[in-house]
Specification:
Two copies of one chain form a homodimer. Chain A is α+β, with helices and mostly antiparallel strands. Chain A has three domains: about 120 residues, Acyl-CoA dehydrogenase/oxidase, N-terminal domain (Butyryl-Coa Dehydrogenase, subunit A, domain 1); about 140 residues, Butyryl-CoA Dehydrogenase, subunit A, domain 2, CATH 2.40.110.10; about 350 residues, Butyryl-CoA Dehydrogenase, subunit A, domain 3 (Up-down Bundle), CATH 1.20.140. Helix content of chain A is about 55%, strand content about 10%. Chain A is built from 23 helices and 13 strands. In chain A, strands 1, 2, 3, 5, 6 and 9 form a six-stranded mixed beta sheet that branches. A three-stranded antiparallel beta sheet of chain A has the order 4-8-7, with no helix packed on it. In chain A, helix 1 packs parallel to helix 23. Chain A is globular. The two termini of chain A are about 40 Å apart. At the A-B interface, strand 12, helix 10, helix 11, helix 12 and helix 13 of A face strand 12, helix 10, helix 11, helix 12 and helix 13 of B.
Chain lengths: ~650, ~650
C-alpha cells in the first residue's frame, strides 16, 4: 500500500491530539465514534475520576453520587427501552460502558450493577409490568437494586443454586429461602449498603415440582435503608480494589413476595396458581434466561480493555519524555522508549489494544443483531455467548497483565497512587473472576467449539460433551465471523502473489491463526471422544487431563476471531495513510501472537527454528518502526487526555 | 530411589503440621532451620500481621511500633556487629528477613530501610566511630534513618547522581546540596514521617576535584520530628501498596555536616583537609561501596519469595477443601485441586518455591563467605553481585505472578481483603522495581556473564562491554556454583546409565539448562562483538537490538544456578523418603522450566516436537502425582499456620 501524506483531521480548539492520533481514534471508535466522542467532549475528569486515596466508605458514596449525576445527564443508561427513558441501542450501551471505564472502574462496576445487571434482569427477564414499575427509578439510580445470583457454595455453578422460591397457593405469594449456609448470596454489588431491591436467583418450586432457576424481585431494604424482616444483609467489606462497590451477602428466611414480582418473561405462575412457560425444558429455559445476560460479560471485557488502554497511554507518554542513562558518544540522555526492552513492554500491547478494540466493536454489533432478532436465531445467540465468553477471558487476562507491565514500565513513579496505575491494576484484578471466572469461560468456549453449537452452552457435564463430540469430527470447525468476506478476499488475493509466505503477508497470518485453531480443536475432539467412551469413573480423569488442551483451543479460537476483526477494521478505514499505520500495527499484533505461541507452531512443524527466530526479529523491527508513531498510537486508543490523571505526565514533574 | 516409610518428625504439641510437612520444612530451611523455627515458635500473628484495611497514617505508625517491639526481642537485627547488640551472622539476617516477610511486607520493608539499608550503610561504609555513635540507636529503632540514594532524575543510574557533598576547608565541614530539581532524593523510606537521619549519597568534591559518589550522614529532623533548616522533606503519600512505609523526598540547600559524618571506610577527607582513599580509581571505589550493599538486593528477592510462599499456602489449602461442580456418576462435589487447570496454577509454582528456597539458602551462605573474606576475594564478590541481581529479578517477577495466580485460584474470595492475598499482591508489586529495577538487573547479569567477571559490574556503557566481549569468546562461560561437586557426580553417574535421556533424568535436566545458558550467552557474545566494532553512532542501535537477548541470557543463567541449588539441597536431605518427594518436586521444577522455554529448545533443535509434547504431558503427570502431597508440600514452605490470616481457611467459612 502506498503511503501518502497524513490525513488532515480537524483538531477541535483546546484539544491536543495530533492529526494522526485523531484519525486513528476515529478508526478505532468505528461505528461508535459519535457516542465515544460525546464522552470525551462532555464528560470531565471530575465527573468520573476518583481520588485514589479515598477510603472505602467515602469511595462507596462517591460512586453512587457520580452514578446518579451521570444518569441524570443521559450517560450510562443506553440500552434501556426508550419508553422508560433509555437513550441508545444495546450496542451503544457497551460503548458507553467502555468509556465510563476510562474514568474509574468502581464507578463503572457500580453502573454495571445498577443499570447493567439489575436493570438488565428487569429488561430481559421481566415483562411490561416490571418495566413500568421498576425501570424509571432504576435508570435514575433512585431505585437501587442487586443482582443476587452467585452463592457462597456455588460460584461458577449457577444451575445448582440452593436458594428456593416456593409458590404458596394459600396466600398467592412466593416464599424465598436460603436453606443452607452455602446458599448465602455472596459478592453481590449494592448489597452491603445501597441496595433497596434485589433480583434473586433461586430454584422455583410450585406444588412440589421443581421448575429450575428463576428470578424474583425481593425488597431487601426500606426507604431509610434498614433491612427488611427476614432478610439478613452482610457487608463483605474491604477488597483488593473496587473500593467504591459495596459488595455484600444476602440471606432469606421465609421472605414473602407477591406473585407479580417473579420476572416471568420465560416462565412463571399464573393468577390461577399454575406454572406456565413458553419453554418446556428446564435446561433450555435456564440457558435462555442466562443468554439474555450476555451483555454483562461483553461489557466486562470491554471495560478491562479500557483500563489497559489508559495504563498504556500513561506509560507510553511517560516513556517518551523520561530519560535514563547517557547515549554513548552524544552525552544526551536516552528516552525510555528508545530502549528495546521498553518498546517490547509497550508496543505489542498497544497492538493488542487495537486488535481487541476492533473485536469489541464487532462483538457489540453482534449483540445488537442477536437482540434485534429477539430469539429468532438461536444459533447466532449461542455463537454470541461463545464469543463473549472467549473475549471476556482473553481481554481481562490481558488487562491484568498489561496494567502491571505499564506500572513496571514507569518504575517507582508507577507505584505512587497519584500516577493512577496501581488503582487501575487493583480495580481490574477481579475482572478475571466476576461475570464468569476465566478458566470456566475458556472451557465454555472449548465445549461450544467441540459441539459445533449443537447443544446449549454452560452445561458442565464434560462427559456428555465428550460423547457428543464424536458427532462433529470431520466437519469444518471454524466458526465464521462477520469479517469473512474480507478474509476470503485477502486469502484469494494472496494466493496470486509471490509474497504469500512473507512474514508480513496478511494471508500467511490468517493461515497460521486458522491452522492453530483448527488443529487444536481437532486434536482435542479426538481426545475427548476417546475419553467419552470410557466408563464413568475413568472418564472424569481422562477428560480432566484435557483441561489445559481445552483452554488452549479456546485461546486459539479467540485469537483468530480477533485477528479477523482487526483486518475488517483496517478494511473499513477509508484513509490510506491511516490504513497503512493500522496495517503495521496489525502485523505486530499477528506476529507477536505467533511469537507467543511459537512453541506450539514449532511442535507442530508449522514453522522451523530459522523462521521462528525470524519472527522474533520481525517483532523487534516492528517495535522500532512504530516507535516514532507511539504518541499517535496511544492517542488513537481514545482516552481523553484530561482523564489521564497521572502526576508523572505533568510538566512540573522531574 | 526406594521410597520408605514417612520420616517420624515429632510434632510439637499445639502444632498441626504433618510429619512429612515438618520434614520438608526442615529440609527447605536447611542451615537456617533453627533461626526460622524460632520465628515460628516465638512470633505471634499479632506481632507481624497488619489489618489489611488500615489506612496509610495508621499503617505507618503500626509498622514503626511493631518494628521497635520486634527489635527489642532480638528479631530483625541479625547482621549487626555483636559488640553493638547485633545477634547472628549476616546470612542469618537474610533468614530473619525472609521470615518477617511471611508476616507483613510493610513491616518487612520498614525493617529493611531501618536495619538493612540505613544500618547496613553505617556498618559497611562507616568506621568504628560511626558504629559507636549510631548503631545502638539504629538497632533499637530509636534513631530512625533514611537511605537516601535514589534521585528523581536518576532512578537506576546511581553513578550519575547529582547531589553534591562539597568539602569546605574554612569550616572543616561538608555542604550538602541538591543543585537541580532532578537531584531530589525520591522514594526514600522513613523520609516522609519517621526519619531523623539520612545516609545521603552524593558526589564528593574536595578542592574542586570530584572523587565520585560518597555517603554522608545528615540530620534531617529534630527530636520532635521537625525538619532541620536547609532540608526540605516531602511525603510521597499513598502508594499501590506498602502503605506502612513512609516514602518521601529530600532536598538539601547548603546543609552543613561535620567532617566526621562522612562514611569514610573507603575514602574521605582527613583532619588535615586532604582526600584519602585506599582505592585510587573513582570507578573501583564506587563499585566497592555499592558491592557492600548487596545484602539488600538478596533480602528483597527472599522476601518476595516469602510472600509467594504464603500466597501458595493459602490458595492450596483452600483448593483442598473448596469444591465446585459434581463428579459425574458419584454426585460428590469435586475439590478445586482435583482439576488439572488448578493443579497447573499451583503445583509448578510450589516446585519453583522449593527451587528458589534452596537457591536463596545458598545465596545467603555465599554472602556470608564474601563478608567473611572482607574483600580478599574480589571475584567471589562480583560473582555474588551477579547472582544477587539475577535472583532478585527472577524471584520478584515470580512472586508478582504467583501472588496473582493464587488470588485468581481462590476466585471472588481471593479478592476480599480478609483473605490476605490482595494485600500480598499489592505489597510485593514494587519489589520488581526497588533495590534494582528488574530489567536493569538482568542486564547487569548478562554483562557480567559476557565479561567473564573481568570488569566491574554496574557500569552502564554497553559499548565498552561489547568491545571487551571479544576477549572472552572460546572460554567456558558457565560460572560454577557451590553445588558443582554434586552436579558433577550426577552427570558422571548418569553417563553410565541407559535412562540418561529420560525426561526425569536429572542429568538430562542439567544438560538442558546448561545448554540453554551456554548457547544463549555465546550467541549474545557474538552479536555484541559485532556491535562493538561499529562506529559509536551505530553501536547504540546494534547493542540496543540485543537487549531482549541479554535478558534471555540472564534468565537462562539464573535458572541453571537455581537448578543446581535444588539438586544440592536434595543431596543434603538425609531422609530417603523426603529426598524422594523433593526429587519429584525437582522434576516438576526442571520440566516446567523447560516447558516454559520450549520455544527456545525447539528453535535450537535441542528437542523435537514429539519430545516437546512429552514434556508437557510429564508436567501434567507430575502435577497429578504430587497432588496427594499438596498439603505437606505447602507445609514444607514453612509459613507458620497461625500467620495464614485468611478468613477462607477458617472452618466456619462456607
Amino acid at each position: 500500500m502506498t503511503v501518502t501524506a497524513p490525513v488532515q483531521c480537524p483538531v477541535p480548539p483546546g484539544r491536543r491530539v495530533t492529526a494522526t492520533g485523531e484519525g486513528l481514534r476515529r478508526a478505532l471508535d468505528g461505528p461508535f465514534h459519535t457516542t465515544k466522542q460525546r464522552w470525551r467532549d462532555e464528560v470531565s475528569a471530575d465527573d468520573i475520576l476518583r481520588d485514589p486515596t479515598l477510603g472505602m466508605a467515602d469511595a462507596r458514596e462517591w460512586a453512587l453520587d457520580k452514578l446518579v449525576a451521570l444518569a441524570a445527564r443521559g450517560f450510562a443508561i443506553a440500552g434501556f427501552p426508550a419508553a422508560w427513558g433509555g437513550r441508545g441501542t444495546v450496542a451503544e450501551s457497551v460503548a458507553h460502558f467502555e468509556m465510563l471505564a476510562m474514568g474509574d472502574l468502581s464507578l463503572t462496576i457500580k453502573s454495571g450493577v445498577q443499570h447493567g445487571l439489575w436493570g438488565g434482569a428487569l429488561v430481559n427477564l421481566g415483562t411490561a409490568w416490571h418495566h413500568a414499575r421498576f425501570l424509571p427509578g432504576t435508570i435514575s439510580g433512585e431505585l437501587t437494586g442487586c443482582f443476587a445470583m452467585t452463592e457462597l457454595g456455588h460460584g461458577s455453578d449457577v444451575q445448582h443454586l440452593e436458594t428456593t422460591i416456593t409458590w404458596l397457593p394459600d396466600t398467592g405469594e412466593y416464599a424465598v429461602d436460603s436453606p443452607t449456609p452455602s446458599a448465602t448470596k455472596a459478592y453481590i454489588g449494592n448489597a452491603a449498603v445501597h441496595g433497596r431491591w434485589a433480583a434473586v436467583f433461586g430454584q422455583l418450586i410450585v406444588g412440589g415440582v421443581h421448575h429450575g432457576v428463576h428470578v424474583v424481585i425481593v425488597r431487601i431494604r426500606t426507604d431509610d435503608l434498614r433491612p427488611v424482616a427476614g432478610v439478613t444483609l452482610g457487608d463483605q467489606g474491604h477488597k483488593g480494589g473496587l473500593l467504591g462497590v459495596d459488595n455484600g451477602t444476602l440471606r432469606f428466611d421465609d421472605v414473602r413476595v407477591p406473585r407479580t414480582h417473579l420476572l416471568d418473561r420465560f416462565g412463571g405462575v399464573t393468577a390461577e396458581g399454575v406454572y406456565a412457560s413458553s419453554i418446556p425444558s428446564v435446561d433450555a429455559r435456564f440457558f435462555t434466561m442466562l443468554g439474555t445476560l450476555v451483555r454483562g460479560r461483553i461489557c466486562v471485557g470491554g471495560a478491562a480493555a479500557s483500563a489497559a488502554r489508559k495504563a498504556l497511554s500513561i506509560a507510553t507518554r511517560y516513556s517518551l519524555t523520561r530519560t535514563q542513562f547517557l547515549m554513548p558518544g552524544s552525552g544526551a540522555e536516552i528516552p525510555l522508549l528508545d530502549y528495546q526492552a521498553q518498546q517490547r513492554k509497550l508496543l505489542p500491547n498497544i497492538a493488542k489494544a487495537y486488535a481487541y478494540g476492533f473485536a469489541m466493536n464487532e462483538l457489540a454489533l453482534q449483540l445488537q443483531r442477536v437482540t434485534d432478532a429477539a430469539g429468532a436465531d438461536p444459533q447466532a445467540g449461542r455463537q454470541l455467548e461463545t464469543r463473549a465468553a472467549g473475549m471476556k477471558a482473553m481481554l481481562t487476562r490481558w488487562a491484568n497483565d498489561t496494567t502491571q507491565v505499564a506500572r513496571e514500565a514507569c518504575g517507582g513513579a508507577g507505584y505512587l497512587s497519584e500516577n493512577a496505575l496501581t488503582l487501575l491494576r487493583q480495580d481490574v484484578d477481579v475482572f478475571a473472576t466476576f461475570e464468569g471466572e476465566n478458566t470456566v469461560m475458556l472451557q465454555l468456549v472449548a465445549k461450544a467449539l467441540l459441539l459445533n453449537y449443537q447443544r446449549s452452552w454452560g452445561e458442565m457435564d464434560l462427559r456428555g460433551t465428550a460423547q457428543a463430540t464424536a458427532r462433529m469430527l470431520g466437519n469444518d470447525i471454524l466458526e465464521r465471523t462477520a469479517a469473512r468476506s474480507v478474509i476470503d478476499r485477502v486469502l484469494a488475493a494472496a494466493s496470486r502473489k509471490p509474497e504469500a509466505q512473507q512474514l508480513t503477508s496478511r494471508a500467511w497470518h490468517i493461515q497460521m491463526f486458522e491452522h492453530r485453531e483448527r488443529h487444536t480443536i481437532e486434536s482435542l475432539a479426538k481426545r475427548m471422544r476417546s475419553a467419552g467412551k470410557l466408563p464413568v469413573e475413568a472418564s472424569f480423569a481422562a477428560i480432566n487431563a484435557c483441561q489445559q488442551h481445552m483452554l488452549a483451543a479456546a485461546r486459539a479460537h479467540t485469537d483468530r476471531v480477533v485477528l479477523e476483526a482487526f483486518i475488517a477494521g483496517i478494511d473499513a478505514a477509508d484513509d490510506p495513510y491511516l490504513a497503512s499505520i493500522l496495517s503495521k500495527v496489525c502485523d505486530l499484533y499477528a506476529l507477536a501472537t505467533i511469537e507467543e505461541n511459537r512453541g506450539w507452531f514449532l511442535e507442530h512443524e508449522r514453522i522451523d527454528g530459522a523462521r521462528s527466530k525470524a519472527i522474533t526479529e520481525s517483532v523487534d523491527c516492528l517495535c522500532l518502526e512504530l516507535r516514532p508513531k507511539a504518541l499517535a498510537l496511544v492517542e488513537g486508543l481514545g482516552v481523553e487526555e484530561s482523564w489521564l490523571n497521572a502526576a508523572l505526565l505533568r510538566a512540573d514533574q522531574g
